[in-house]
Amino acid sequence: DISEEVTRRTIERTLDQFKITPENIREGVLYFNKQMRDGLRNKSESHDYMPMIPSFITHIPDGSETGLSLAGDLGGTNFRICSVELNGDHTFNLEQYKTKVEKAFMVGTSDELFGHLARQIKYFLSLHHSDYLKSNTEKIKMSFTFSFPLDQTSLNTGTLIRWTKGFNIEDAVGKDIAELFQKAIDSLNLPVRIVAITNDTVGTLLANAYSSVSKKKTVLGAIFGTGTNGAYAEKLDNIAKLDSKTVELLKSRGIDDMIINTEWGSFDNCLKFLPTTIYDEIVDSETSNPGVHVFEKRISGMFLGEIVRLMMLDLHKRKLILQNYEQIEATLRSVPSSSNLLNLTNLPRRPNSKKLSHRILTEWNFTTENLSKIQIDDTKNLKVTELVIQESLHLATTFEDRIIIKEVTTAVTTRAALLSSIAIAAVVLKTGRLGVTLDEKGVLVDTHLKDDVVEVAVDGSVVEFYPGFQENIYRGLRYSQLGEDFAKKIDITITKDGSGVGAALCAGSYLE
Ligand code: ADP
Questions:
Q1: Where does this protein have coiled-coil stretches (predicted)?
Q2: Fold of 1-55+213-496
Q3: Domain ranges of the chain
Q4: Which of 108, 84, 111 has the alpha carbon at shortest distance from 96?
Q5: How many angstroms is it from 503 CA to the middle of ligand 1?
Q6: Ligand 1 in contact with 498 (CB < 6 A)?
Q7: Is the CB of 308 under 6 A from ligand 1?
Q8: pLDDT-based confidence at 355, cuts 50/70/90?
Q9: Model pLDDT for residues 153-211, shown as the tens digit of each residue
């Protein structure tokens, strides 16, 4: 059948745009290496290198740490507080409390916001650590995870550059947020001192370094969830953009390394390497930050479902899939709604409509979680895929549609995992811990360090739950300059509690 053959060839051409070859991976690693090195030298923002932000965290735990500390986390909608009692044997006791931040606090004054957060801490202490509230002699150290753009100048000073995610408190912009928060804490006479400002990637690295009993070095903390990012320890001598006084002071205290928050979501913002399809361009144009975070937009949970939605729409317009959706939908409607597999009562009534359901036409309406279900569908008729498309998009599909939708899903997410492996391979090589590194020119050299196996601590629903994501990361690692032998020596370990235990561990970098 000629038309079937033409369809097949057109689909193949569309999917081919998502192919990543071993050569692509090695080229990507070289470029990642260059962008990391340039980012470590340059302070100003640029599309030509990664941000590579010094975290001022210099103590990487080994599991022997002890004591009580607090972690506060203001991410977007919630403020989370936890206390962590480290037992010194890789274990800990954790108390947690989460509260929604009302809109009024997001757009009022800094006194109102931080006053509110301080009152939440007081409440938390009264629940779990009332003895501290009474004694008021000893202060508990607190790390503050603050997920907004900061110009951080020491472990516990950071000037707010701008608000994002619906926050808008003008008087806080340009001020040190730790100072604002500490003032609010002090005015309630709480026994709490903010000693560190940090972020979730750094927390993931520290949490794994503390908890791991394997004696393997944790060389990288990485997030693959809504977004993606990574943090690793870098030699102070390599962080040229740190001011020399800070470096001297740290060295005089016997410190040689500092954790760098790479902000690798911004890898290749100048698009010299990354494969770009028309779908990537549309996704980028739909975001609030077009032209930046372009690596993240090809990798993380917020975007993968959207790429697939746009591809389904395009293939429909080109008359390659979803051509019979109405007819089939009508048949489906006649099925009694008592069938709990096909809940048809939710289907929109669109008699004589020639338009697709509004759901598939709506931006961001198709999640990466849906892709997971399609990916794992091994039923004969791709029944699971049928239900996913029906429930999430209110569309009926033919078996042929479903085969293509599954292929599209696989193409988009395999590319995501292989691109992720570029970041992991490049950072592991940069640390040199496996005995090899890439020098300034991208030449592979021996570092004489010989850790047998290293751990890469990861967190986020995509890396944790997406079927085959980790396998594809490993495949990419083998394609990279690490090759088969070194790729084998990387243990990808799911690590929870980055923003709790990990953040609390940041207090360990505070020097009196
Ligand atoms: P966050 O990164 O916001 O802390 P998560 O790590 O849970 O939270 O990541 C959320 C992202 O992961 C969302 O984009 C969501 O669509 C996606 N996601 C949730 N569940 C799954 C799953 N089972 N498989 C793949 N992606 C998932």
A1: none
A2: Hexokinase; domain 1 (3.40.367)
A3: 1-55+213-496, 61-198
A4: 84
A5: 21
A6: no
A7: no
A8: low
A9: 899 999 998 887 788 999 999 999 999 999 999 999 999 999 999 988 999 999 999 99
Judge if the beta carbon of residue 369 lies within 6 A of ligand 1.
yes
- Is 460 touching ligand 1 by the criterion CB < 6 Å? yes
Question: How far does the centroid of ligand 1 lie from the alpha carbon of residue 459, in Å?
Answer: 10
Q: Residue whose CA is closest, atom 21 of ligand 1?
A: 369
The finding on whether 462 has its CB within 6 A of some atom of ligand 1 is yes
Closest ligand 1 atom, residue 304 Cα: 14
Gyration radius from the chain CA atoms:
25
Residue 434 near residue 482, CB atoms below 8 Å: yes
Does the pLDDT of residue 345 top 80, yes or no?
A: no
Residue nearest to atom 7 of ligand 1 (CA): 461
> From the CB of residue 429, how many other CB atoms can be counted at a distance below 10 Å?
25
- Report the atom number in ligand 1 closest to the C-alpha of 368: 16
On whether ipTM exceeds 0.85, the answer is: yes
Q: Cβ distance 221 to 457 under 8 Å?
A: yes
**Mean pLDDT calculated for residue range 468-489:** 97
For ligand 1, atom 6, the nearest C-alpha belongs to 460
Cα 294 to middle of ligand 1, angstroms: 18
Choosing from 364, 368, 392 the residue with most ligand 1 atoms within 8 A of its CB, the one to mutate for a pocket test is 368
Single-letter amino acid code for the residue at 68: L
Residue 494 CA, distance from chain mean position: 13
Q: Is the CB of residue 465 below 6 angstroms from any atom belonging to ligand 1?
A: yes
Arithmetic mean of pLDDT, 76-98: 93
Q: Which atom of ligand 1 is nearest to the CA of 372?
A: 24
**CA distances in angstroms from 132 to 189, 439, 479, listed in the order given:** 11, 51, 54
Q: Helix/strand/coil (H, E, C) string of 444-493?
A: EEECCCCCCCEEEEEECHHHHHCCCHHHHHHHHHHHCCCHHHHHCCEEEE
CATH architecture of 61-198: 2-Layer Sandwich (3.30)
Q: Please provide the DSSP assignment of 115-153 as one string.
A: HHHHHHHHHHHHHH-HHHHHH-SSPEEEEEEE-S-EEEE
Question: For residues 247-282, b (16+ Cβ closer than 10 Å) or e, as one string?
Answer: beebeeeeeebbbbbbbbbbbbbeeebbeebebbeb
Residue 144 main-chain phi, psi, to 5 deg: -120, 110
pLDDT, averaged across the chain: 91
142 lines ligand 1 (CB under 6 A): no
Neighbours of 432 (CB within 10 A): 18
